[in-house]
Please model this.
Amino acid sequence: MSKESISNLLPLAERLHSTSIRLLRRVRKVDELTGLSPSTLSAMSVLVFGGPCSLGDLARAEQVRAPTMTRIVGELESAGYVKRVASKSDRRVVQIRATPKGIRLLKQGRSRRAQLVAEWLDALSVRDRKKVEEAVTILERVVQAAQ
Model:
């Protein structure tokens, strides 16, 4: 793709970026019901939807330093949302794993956010909802290809 065509796409890219951030900020309002910070919930999301991982891998996934993640995991562990599990093959390796309580918390939060978005979508015409569905399908493909 040429630089000229990229520059022509920048206004659309900026709108998409801005709208995505505003949408996420609005749905995060319902996350306040959990009593956990956005960074703590984000770490939980990695564990619940991505599976157990080491503290270092979790810190990398969340783009924070290990001491920050150590503090976050400590908070989650104290609340009973995660537990540390030693690897069966190498006792020096510790995995952070979501507990059933943590999984419930995240699934309830996801459900509340989805409910809010569904209410917004309900206000749209059937035609506009179909367009949103098509756009989401395309964006899923774009994100998958970028990984």
Q: What stands out?
A: The CA atoms of residues 12 and 85 lie 45 Å apart. The chain is about 70% helix and 10% strand. The mean pLDDT is 92. The chain has one domain: 14-146.
